[in-house]
């Protein structure tokens, strides 16, 4: 599983990212200043200090500055994480894929109207969220286990999807219309037309009034149905019977105290008179109850009802408030009638302005009104007077047990904040109470402006929320007043609190501020992996909340479609940071196929930066092919991205090569079989795998060879021969360099240079393979000679195979000793080349010496002389081979080897022949180098 690019779910180091130091150019090779360093000295190590760039071996600063080819990059390498844990689908939720599908569908229709596109996206998000909510609720309801953690997770998931769906509903209602151009002036409304015409006109003229109404309608739509208790059969009967205990107490008192003859004497108008002092409550003799059952009885008599009727009062007013809060006035009226308080129904329905089907043609067909020619006018022609009456009811003193709910219900009808808030149970209720009051205040002022409120009505007191809350940034003030960190009225889960913050930003038109907060958290987290956003008390949002990150990302996309998001500046940069964070989250969850869709929404430089990180973690070949197709489909810059990916791979793995120690004698590694040598390490595989991306992109062979040279240098400087062999096998020079000499001549001089260098580095692997083949056959020859003597080798096919292997090893190793990397000693990376030659050339020379020696022993003694011919090459000043022996302090060992082979040559010279080819069958040949004649004799001949 690929390590997560951005996964705060794991423990991370508190250490910030370390900047990479450039190599000291004056560095010289010596045993004291070599790759065999202590940990304290690794900062200036040569191995791994080359950062890939198209300019070749130029050392660049990977995190920005004058030398960086990519500008400001803040990439965090894998070494910044203590462990890599990917995000799974359960953390992200199934909506990740479905949301991407909607984004992609609407991307394919560029001709579509911007608002239509945005609404299509919103509808898709809203529908998918609702489907996920239903699924989560089904799983919660069908779960039969007793695991409390699982139960809480299911409840939390259900609540989140419900609230997210409400958020998309708010966006659908409010956000698209913010670009709507409102009319400056309305038509003249006649005296006979309804106030409703003026209300509609105000909606067209005032964006504030329009948005307040939209917010109120949304808050009504998401309000839950009032909780009507029906646990036992008596509940419904109690609500339909009204003050049942009060009526029973009055009836019993009347039966016990009335005089039947008095009723006979008075006739039909007889009336029982309760004592002026009142009657005691049946459950508390020290408390008096009402004796008059009209609605104003408790207020007028300053008495209450028996405690048995408390349930009725509390339930009635709480449910009534719930219906009014939800804006369902018809059900509120039905509830009043059902509970034997039909007189309250007209009060509840009094909030509708009067309309006349004949005069008010603009509104007569509205579903809110039931006007018709047969019915005549409908609604309240004295609505502002009715509003003041509701306010008076809300402010009066009451002893009813449901007093809080009763006052709040009338307070909502009147548009009063103070009497409404005590009944508010959650964040949405508080917002509703204040928004509702603002609407009533704006409407009141507009009617007054048009002379629609009589002087007598104006003399009655009524609250003005506009005067209380002001006219500027009102919604921001409301949201902020309900979002203080020390306010514990609305305790909820972290996700619910965060979604409230999102809704508050949408309501107050401060989405850019929210996005900037989120972007800043993402930046902080990338700089300091130990940063904990959830402990930041300045804001309830948390960039590690994957679902919230998805919501905010898609809100940005919607606003971009609507043209409501800037393309330049701070807000544009913040949006890019959030989308980039979402992409990294997708990569951590291995959602690679949908990543290019979102990367296409980034600017070119940011896209290259982010995708340069993402591609490092793609290991599956099929996924790689899909990504390349997506790059082309979405018009992403493949070449620049792959260059950045390669650079990131070098930066990430650099430290691992600096700490690697190289054996003093690399020959000890040569003597091992490939199976016993050190295997390819993860960092080696990352570099090679990253470079392979370029194989499938045309016109990137030059870049690939640049990267290959850098990798060869790293592998050779740290003795990772198997990694070098893997690189040579998977990225072969013959796949990069034209076979036809004419095509090769068409390359630029720089391309020719880097191609020749790549081939040079590849030659080492070819030489080592040839040496391996020779060693394998040599082992077989030694075994055959042990069993049957030298003749056994000569008579078998093994000798032919050994001759072929010897010729190959002699040719390839000889080429390495004679000229390997000599031409590169004047390149910008000459210091590293010098290290590599000093490291490998002595051992290659010793290896070739051993090949000649073994060939003389097993094949023909004349091969001994080639050891001395090799010594001549080593001693030649132009070859530079002797310098490598001296630099590594190994010349003495090589001289000892030459002394030994010289003795062997002397011992093998039993007869002198001028040429080995003249040796007769069964006769040992002499060594040509010892067939020395004086100069005078040679002249006579």
From TrEMBL:
Organism phylogeny: Eukaryota, Fungi, Dikarya, Ascomycota, Pezizomycotina
Species the sequence originates in: Orbilia ellipsospora
Keywords: Membrane, mRNA transport, Nuclear pore complex, Nucleus, Protein transport, Translocation, Transport
Protein name: Nuclear pore complex protein
Subcellular location: Nucleus, Nuclear pore complex; Nucleus membrane
Role noted for this protein: Functions as a component of the nuclear pore complex (NPC).
One of the protein's GO biological processes: post-transcriptional tethering of RNA polymerase II gene DNA at nuclear periphery
UniProt record similarity statement: Belongs to the nucleoporin Nup84/Nup107 family.
Keyword Transport: yes
Subunit structure: Part of the nuclear pore complex (NPC).
Primary localization: nucleus
MF terms (GO), sorted A to Z: structural constituent of nuclear pore
Top-level lineage group: Eukaryota
GO cellular component: nuclear membrane; nuclear pore outer ring
InterPro entries: Nup84/Nup107 (IPR007252)
Pfam families attached to this UniProt entry: Nup84_Nup100
Gene3D superfamilies for this protein: 1.10.3450.20, 1.20.190.50
């Amino acid at each position: 599983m690929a390590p997560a690019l951005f996964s705060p779910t794991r423990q991370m180091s508190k250490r910030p990212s370390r900047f990479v130091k450039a190599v000291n150019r004056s560095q010289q090779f010596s045993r004291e200043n070599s790759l065999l360093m202590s940990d304290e000295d690794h900062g200036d190590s040569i191995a791994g200090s080359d950062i890939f760039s198209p300019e070749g071996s130029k050392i660049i600063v990977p995190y920005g500055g004058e030398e960086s080819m990519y500008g400001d990059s803040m990439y965090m390498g894998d070494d910044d994480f203590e462990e890599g844990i990917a995000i799974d689908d359960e953390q992200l939720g199934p909506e990740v894929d479905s949301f991407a599908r909607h984004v992609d569908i609407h991307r394919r229709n560029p001709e579509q109207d911007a608002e239509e596109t945005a609404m299509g996206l919103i509808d898709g998000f809203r529908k998918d969220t609702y489907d996920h909510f239903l699924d989560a609720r089904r799983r919660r309801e069908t779960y039969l286990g007793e695991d409390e953690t699982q139960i809480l997770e299911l409840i939390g998931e259900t609540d989140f999807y419900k609230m997210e769906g409400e958020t998309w509903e708010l966006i659908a209602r409010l956000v698209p219309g913010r670009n709507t151009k409102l009319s400056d002036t309305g038509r003249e409304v006649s005296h006979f037309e309804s106030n409703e015409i003026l209300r509609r006109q105000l909606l067209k003229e005032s964006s504030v009034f329009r948005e307040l109404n939209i917010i109120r309608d949304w808050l009504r739509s998401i309000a839950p149905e009032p909780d009507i208790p029906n646990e036992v059969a008596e509940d419904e009967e109690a609500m339909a019977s009204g003050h049942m205990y009060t009526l029973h107490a009055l009836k019993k008192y009347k039966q016990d105290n009335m005089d039947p003859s008095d009723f006979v004497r008075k006739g039909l108008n007889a009336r029982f008179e309760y004592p002026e002092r009142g009657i005691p409550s049946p459950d508390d003799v020290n408390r008096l109850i009402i004796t008059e059952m009209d609605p104003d009885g408790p207020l007028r008599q300053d008495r209450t009802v028996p405690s048995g009727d408390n349930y009725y009062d509390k339930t009635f007013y709480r449910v009534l408030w719930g219906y009014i809060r939800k804006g369902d006035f018809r059900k509120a009226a039905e509830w009043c009638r059902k509970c034997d308080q039909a007189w309250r129904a007209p009060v509840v329905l009094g909030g509708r302005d009067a309309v006349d089907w004949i005069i008010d043609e603009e509104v007569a067909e509205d579903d809110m009104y039931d006007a018709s020619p047969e019915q005549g006018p409908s609604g309240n022609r004295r609505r502002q007077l009715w509003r003041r009456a509701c306010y008076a009811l809300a402010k009066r003193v009451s002893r009813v047990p449901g007093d809080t709910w009763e006052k709040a219900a009338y307070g909502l009808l009147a548009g009063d904040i103070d009497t409404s808030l005590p009944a508010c149970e959650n964040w949405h209720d508080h917002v509703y109470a204040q928004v509702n009051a603002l609407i009533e205040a704006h409407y009141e002022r507009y009617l007054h402006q048009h002379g629609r409120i009589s002087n007598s009505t104006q003399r009655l007191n009524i609250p003005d929320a506009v005067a209380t809350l002001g006219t500027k940034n009102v919604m921001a003030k409301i949201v902020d007043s309900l979002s203080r960190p020390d306010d514990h009225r609305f305790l909820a889960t972290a996700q619910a609190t965060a979604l409230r913050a999102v809704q508050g930003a949408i309501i107050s038109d401060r989405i850019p501020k929210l996005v900037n907060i989120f972007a800043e958290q993402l930046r902080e987290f990338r700089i300091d992996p130990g940063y904990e956003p959830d402990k930041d008390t300045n804001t309830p949002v948390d960039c590690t909340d994957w679902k919230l990150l998805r919501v905010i990302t898609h809100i940005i996309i919607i606003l971009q479609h609507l043209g409501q998001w800037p393309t330049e500046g701070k807000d544009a940069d913040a949006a890019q940071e959030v989308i980039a964070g979402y992409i990294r989250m997708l990569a951590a969850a291995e959602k690679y196929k949908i990543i290019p869709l979102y990367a296409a929404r980034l600017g070119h430089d940011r896209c290259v930066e982010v995708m340069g990180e993402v591609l490092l973690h793609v290991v599956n070949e099929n996924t790689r092919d899909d990504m390349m197709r997506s790059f082309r489909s979405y018009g992403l810059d493949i070449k620049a991205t792959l260059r950045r990916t390669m650079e990131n791979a070098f930066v990430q793995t650099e430290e691992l090569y600096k700490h690697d120690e190289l054996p003093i004698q690399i020959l000890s590694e040569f003597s091992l079989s490939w199976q016993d040598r050190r295997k390819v390490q993860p960092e080696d595989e990352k570099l090679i795998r990253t470079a392979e991306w370029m194989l499938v992109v045309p016109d990137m062979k030059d870049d690939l060879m640049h990267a290959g040279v850098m990798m060869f240098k790293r592998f050779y400087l740290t003795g990772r021969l198997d990694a070098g062999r893997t690189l040579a096998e998977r990225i072969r020079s013959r796949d990069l360099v034209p076979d036809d000499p004419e095509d090769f001549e068409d390359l630029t001089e720089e391309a020719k240079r880097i191609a020749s260098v790549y081939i040079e580095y590849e030659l080492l692997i070819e030489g080592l393979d040839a040496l391996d083949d020779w060693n394998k056959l040599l082992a077989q020859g030694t075994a055959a000679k042990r069993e049957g003597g030298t003749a056994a080798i000569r008579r078998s096919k093994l000798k032919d195979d050994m001759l072929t292997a010897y010729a190959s090893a002699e040719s390839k190793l000889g080429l390495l000793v004679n000229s390997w990397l000599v031409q590169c000693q004047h390149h910008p990376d000459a210091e590293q080349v010098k290290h590599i030659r000093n490291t490998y050339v002595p051992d290659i020379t010793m290896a070739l010496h051993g090949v000649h020696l073994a060939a003389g022993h097993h094949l023909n003694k004349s091969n001994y002389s080639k050891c001395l011919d090799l010594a001549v090459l080593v001693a030649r000043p132009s070859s530079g081979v002797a310098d490598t022996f001296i630099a590594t302090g190994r010349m003495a060992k090589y001289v000892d080897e030459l002394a030994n082979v010289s003795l062997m040559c002397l011992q093998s010279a039993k007869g002198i022949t001028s040429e080995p080819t003249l040796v007769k069958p069964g006769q040992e040949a002499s060594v040509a180098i010892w067939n020395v004649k004086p100069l005078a004799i040679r002249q006579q001949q």
